[in-house]
Amino acid sequence: xxxxxxGASGRTGHFLMDMALQGGxxxxxxxxxxxxxSLSHERLTIIEGTVADRERIERAVExxxxxxxxxxxxxEGTANIIAAMKKQxxxxxxxxxxxxxxxxxxxxxxxxxxxxxxxxxxxxRNVREVRRAAELIRASDLEWTLARIPVLTDRPGSLPKxxxxxxxxxxxxxxxADLATFLYDQLVETRFIRQAxxxxxxxxxxxx
Length: 208
Fold this sequence. Notes:
Shape: globular
Order of helices and strands: EHEEHEHEHHEEEEHE
CATH class: Alpha Beta
Number of helices: 6
């Protein structure tokens, strides 16, 4: 499988690329700073670019079987990726979103509401951007999955849990290694196509 990864130079991107390369996949890593991509492999191609580089974004998704977006709260980049995928006939999009994005299946969860109130206060623009990006993805006709993520940590990976807020399954912390595992699993998993599950680490990694 050929996978285009946007935002590949971050810590989650490193975990994800390592998994995919070990799994025998070909990777196209799109990064604003290629020097931050610490991996080197014959099946890894690095494309330097920004969210505004439509030509380079299109080159990155050309021939891909799936696209994974890790850029976060950048709706312009999301719009350009969706446009490039449609032009190149790529259908599968797996995107990291945030707990500030709501879903009709959610119920009240105190920990989430406290975090959301703090995020709205500190980075309101990011909240607006990530919600706009989610709207663009949901409005597309792609085979998308939105992974709504809480507080990211660098703890060792455990087993990621995916459900909807307020159902007693997911918590408010997620190890980057677990996020990478969940995103990687979605390459073959069909349960969450056109769904926006919340993802967290298991209980031992999930304490506030």
